[in-house]
């Protein structure tokens, strides 16, 4: 638990003080860019007649706030402020991050986005489940596909029969 | 006693066999998702929003009430058996609870958590029933300036209290406010930050934002750091308490309730402070030497505080239409789905619905106790589901929930975008709640700000012309000035707890 930001962290024995987390500069830059864009986007709005505030003021305030916080974050980073990555039940922070798995998962999700209308939810959902399990290191592909199909077809029927929402049938139109 | 009669009337309309079934489903599902990592009650309710297309409002809310309390209880189960608090509100439970479990007293820890949650939730709900109508009567006369000040209070409190870094809290808050800007400006009908995309014009669906940031963000974050060895779950039998445990628990339950309810009822952001205060108090009052080695008071107090604050959350939600937690905001969007506008007039226009909702909270609470005491060993086993399939399932249901609202793949793409944002927030230690509240309260704030300033003709003094507004701003100032003391006190408590941990490891 680190103390307040304005007080420099007391260096502990197990880590060198003043290690700069370069990633935070990227976050600060992202916030500053988004803030500036928000201000520009608001500047082209028209203010109606007899509208003392108008649609611009709020985005101006928020955009400037983002830029300000982004700048403060950059300064805090330079002074050695470290983020505390979130811990969790299945999170092991002792090893370095495995971004390849994240990339695989995002790819599987984007495949779902691209194919869901064509293949229909019952197939796309199954591909999503099996693909995500595989990305996360499961090697029981046959079982995952079967579980995925059961989940996807089951949810299709649950929505169709239970709630009257027809999820896209896709290529299985007429079979389901 | 008029409120009491109304509450009894609510109980009558809520207590049908069908509704009890929905309550049971809600409790079981809620505990299920509460025990699973990566999804909390807000997520579960968001995923179940489609059921509101078919169910009566009463039945839907009974299910949500069960989900809400079930989810909270599931969170305390993992704190006790795994020492991994799923949310900030369970941090204090884990301190003593996990030590109890390691000393073979897990069953007693789970029991005191369950009974304490029941006691606190029941007292809390009854207090809501008595306070909300009175508050709604007052709130009808509140003007835009006071509302605006209340929302500023809610945002400042959540931003500075949660997490350890106020700067990162503000970063999350402003990102959330920016997301809340996307869509048509409500007064003039001009699109803002839509990049010319038609689907963005009618504002972002809070469900997609919440599910993306909570569930997808969590799944992606876990994917990057997946623990290769299974977590160590302490096996546990059926929860029960001996006479001694009851004797030691009942006072902390009541004290925890007294801490939790006011903090939940103020738009002051959640259960973190009251659970912390409750832990501190029990520790000070304890005459025994076993604090830090699994004292039952250290579970009983914070658990009660947590649930009382969860019940208290309904006061601002029902009386003012102000959601102060992610769960409250998802529940409000369910209300809006039924064409009900939350706010002070809710109590008068939809009185029967409100009383039924409060009654269903009582029912959900009772069922939680009845169902979960025998089922605890089962929940403990659930913690052993293989992780790849578990997170694949979470991704599957998250996409299903996003897709089912409009049957538009664009919503899944949006979900992925927010999932990546959630991943980034976890990587850089940005707290999630300020962002979600920014998304929800941002548009409301803007509306109230413009109302207040239109009335005053653009004069900024119009923000301070109500006594309540001025009082709130003074409170905010006091809070910000007092913050370093709170932070220091907390660091001391947690510091001493970890020091004792280290001593144990040495022995």
From TrEMBL, chain A:
Keyword Membrane part of the UniProt annotation: yes
**Keyword Transmembrane helix appears in the UniProt entry:** yes
Do you know which Pfam families this protein is assigned to?
Answer: TctB (PF07331)
What protein is this chain from?
Putative tricarboxylic transport membrane protein
Q: Give the transmembrane ranges.
A: 25-45, 57-79, 99-129, 141-159
Listed A to Z, the keywords are:
Membrane, Transmembrane, Transmembrane helix
InterPro entries with a match to the protein in the record: DUF1468
Q: Which domain of life is it from?
A: Bacteria
Where does the DUF1468 domain start and stop, copy by copy? 27-167
From TrEMBL, chain B:
| UniProtKB keywords | Membrane, Transmembrane, Transmembrane helix
Keyword Membrane carried by entry:
yes
Question: Which species is listed as the source?
Answer: Nocardioides albertanoniae
Name used for this protein in its record: Putative tricarboxylic transport membrane protein
Q: Which positions fall inside the DUF112 domain? A: 20-437
Ranges that cross the membrane = 20-49, 109-132, 144-162, 169-186, 206-224, 314-335, 355-378, 390-406, 412-442, 463-482
Q: Is the DNA damage keyword given for this protein?
A: no
Extract the InterPro entries matched here.
DUF112_TM (IPR002823)
What domain of life does the native source organism fall in?
Bacteria
